[in-house]
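DUF397 domain-containing protein, pasting as requested.
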Amino acid sequence: MTTIPDYEFRTSSACTYENNNPRCVEVATNVPGKVVVRSSVTGRAVEFTATEWTDFLSGAKLGEFDLSA
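Structure tokens follow.
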């Protein structure tokens, strides 16, 4: 049987609470080699390897995912 790790999520520093309606991104990095991101609204989570997460952040910082108007 596979044990599911206990993730320790923390809320993004960019999170804002509007009328007690938090719409935040939470991230867990306490399991070696994994980064898990979840929505505070739905609880859905996406798991990344540490390398995938680093590549994603690099792309985001370079504007790779910017939406054009």
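Note for the archive: The mean pLDDT is 85.
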